[in-house]
Amino acid sequence: MKDVVLSNIHKTYKGRDIPALNDVSFETGEGELFGLIGPDGAGKTSLFRILTTLILPDSGCAKVCGKDVVNDYKEIRKIVGYMPGKFSLYQDLSVEENLNFFATVFNTSLKKNYDLIKDIYIQIEPFKKRRAGQLSGGMKQKLALCCALIHKPKVLFLDEPTTGVDAVSRKEFWGMLKALKEQGISILVSTPYMDEADLCDRIALIQNGKIMSIDTPHSITLNYPDPLYAVQSDQMGKLLHDLRNFREIKSCNAFGDYHHISFVSERKETGNELKDYLLKKDHSNIKLNAVAPGIEDCFIQLMDSE
Amino acid sequence: MKEIVIKTEKLTKQFGNFIAANEISFEVYKGEIFGFLGANGAGKTTAMRMLCGLSRPTSGNATIAGFDVYRQTEEIKKNIGYMSQKFSLYEDLNILENIRFFGGIYGLSRQEIREKSEKLIDQLGLEMEVKKLVGELPLGWKQKLAFSVAILHEPSIVFLDEPTGGVDPVTRRQFWDLIYEASDRGITIFVTTHYMDEAEYCNRVSMMVDGKIEALDTPGNLKMKYAANSMDGVFYELARGAKRKAD
Fold it and tell me: How many whole angstroms separate alpha carbon B143 and alpha carbon A91?
């Protein structure tokens, strides 16, 4: 069964010319960890709000576990867990009180579903008497995840759970998601960090309200249209500028300690011609290697071709 | 001899028993792009607030653009620029109004403001948008504009607190083009980021762990020292030893 089905969803907010969502369609499978990858303003949050029955689409159809987001909204609310991008628990209730509150709302108790949240909850349990507002960012995030899970939802919606979180805590959080997935919960998660895409079963790349590509991270990178190269020299700033002025260059982007480039045409001599050109421009220690494209390369390529 | 624009000596900030910044000492040079990294809760924000003259240190010394962090906080504020992902521009003013407002705050003359606005709008290609409210602009444009406004008064240092968070990958790179240009003009860039590829674009990077500066060097040397093939590896190696998990 498909857990989430979206067909031709459109949404334009009042007073705006540009649609927030423009003909969005995709499906996620049962028990799938599905990632929605895109920058701020791409439409990720609008999509979550439609799926969690908080706003209505202008047109199109959306279903969660076979139930329609408009007609069956009450049933959907019982079977989904939602962690919004903005911390939305009660700041003046303690950790324990928040959990008990959400459990009661869903007609259950902390005890009943303790197994599901145990691994996450034990990390914040020492602070269970502390008010949620007094927790650190990482602990707030863990509490919010526990509250979203307390009624054992079938589908979990996580809107940018790792935004503003440092690289170490982000790794930790993705570890938790993997463990939840193994317990049979479907997860739809959004992130602006392209490096997190590889941790999902499948991803959708979204920009300006439109889905640019949907597939497994591996297949998306395989579909990159050109051979890609990584270039380095001892003057990286100047190198970027000089590369862009080389006549055979198709794309050129900074990627950490290398610049990634592709060529207009694939001729054998191009690589050597580029090296000669760069030597003439006073670069030394020039390195030019073929490199496998990552999700960020694909995202940039798709943005450029839109 | 390189000109020093930020110099701290055992700079410390204590809140009760909690030492947020613990005897941090470092120097930043004119025109340098200096990456200020650390896990959440490591003490970056506290340190940055002291350097901007917004928070009085508990002990230690620091001079920013030649001004003392205890006695000359007003002079510091006039000589620095600041932007973050959260605070940048007024969303309910249009582009021109924002430029005029911040230009006025920094004491530029009308003539200067007019000239600078034209140049800035031309540089960013925003001619068609000048009358648009800033709140209606895409985040990427907003951040590029905010950066240009933060350096409108040609400060000696600009502090950037996660300036590219949530910005699309193309605009993120354009943002760094602006950073390079400013650095070429001699403006010192002091920047925090969660994107490890951006750490590679800095001339030097410091890593804060539990209130202390644990490492400070060029990205190349750091990678060698910690036997990592990327800055992500360096960050992981240093930050996972952190005991503090605050925010």
Answer: 30
Comparing alpha-carbon positions, the chain B residue that sits nearest to A38 is: B168
Phi and psi torsions of A280, nearest 5°: -65, -30
Would residue A84 count as lying in a domain? yes
Whether A45 and A138 share a structural domain: yes
Question: Is the distance from CB of B145 to CB of B121 less than 8 angstroms?
Answer: no
CB atoms within 10 A of CB B246: 17
**Residues in B touching A296 (Cβ below 8 Å):** 169
| Closest alpha carbon within chain A to B238 | A168
Among A204, A222, A240, give the residue marking a domain's end.
A222
Strand partners, B133: B94
Minimum distance, in Å, between the CA of residue B170 and any CA atom of chain A: 6
Same domain assignment for residues A204 and A257: no
Question: Is B197 part of the contact surface with chain A (CB cutoff 8 Å)?
Answer: yes
Which of A163, A165, A166 comes nearest B166 by C-beta?
Answer: A163
Distance from B238 to chain A by nearest Cα, in Å?
A: 10
Domain boundary among A174, A191, A222: A222
What is the residue range of A175's domain?
A: 2-222
Residue A105 pLDDT > 90 = yes
Q: How far is B180 from chain A (nearest CA, A)?
A: 8
Across the interface, whether the CB atoms of B166 and A256 are under 8 A apart is answered no
- Mean local confidence (pLDDT), A232-246: 92
Instruction: Tell me the pLDDT of chain A averaged across its residues.
Output: 93
Strand order in the sheet with A67-68: A21-29, A2-11, A59-64, A67-68
A101: in domain: yes
Number of folded domains that form chain A: 2
Q: What is the ipTM of this complex?
A: 0.83
Where in chain B are the domains? 89-154
pLDDT at B245: 55
Angle at B177 between CA A273 and CA B159, to 5 degrees: 145
A300 belongs to a structural domain: no
Give the chain B residue whose CA is nearest to the CA of A44. Answer: B166
Question: pLDDT at position B240, please?
Answer: 82
Q: Is B66 helix (H, G, I), strand (E, B) or coil?
A: coil
pLDDT tens digit sequence for A168-187 = 888 889 999 999 999 999 99
pLDDT in tens, A50-99: 999 999 999 999 999 999 999 999 999 999 999 998 888 999 999 999 99
Q: Say yes or no: A91 and A205 in one domain.
A: yes
Q: Which of A164, A167, A304 sits opposite B235 (nearest CB)?
A: A167
Pairwise CB contact (< 8 Å): B40 & A237: no
With an 8 Å Cβ cutoff, is A22 touching chain B? no
Residue A194's CATH number? 3.40.50.300
* Longest CA–CA separation in chain A, Å: 73
Task: For chain A, say whether B194 makes contact (Cβ under 8 Å).
Answer: yes
